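Course assignment 3, question 2. Fill in each field.
Student: A.L.
Task: Predict the tertiary structure for the chain below.
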Amino acid sequence: MSSEEFKLADSVVYDAATQEVVVTLRDSSRHAWPVRLLEMVQSGADAWLPLVGLTDEQLAKVEVYGGGQYILWDELGQVFKVSDLLAGVYGREEWMKKLMATTK
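Answer field:
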């Protein structure tokens, strides 16, 4: 198995107690991200609109997708690339700037 294959997701769960998505990679390492950091949006007529009021039940329906390259909330239409999450990229550039401004 190559080092890149170790960085693929083996499993994913949503932890409602911590409100985090937890990804276990093929090398057995576990990584967790607060869902509030992830840019969850839908396309509107003129802009991307944030998804609001997501329930624990909806967030629990997350799965590994694309041979471990992505995590997917199919019902919500949300896909995140595992390598981006590992690199600290949780959304579009605009979203990341907003996050950085709020963490200073």
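Instructor remarks: The first strand starts at residue 9 and ends at 15. The chain is about 20% helix and 35% strand.
Grade: pending
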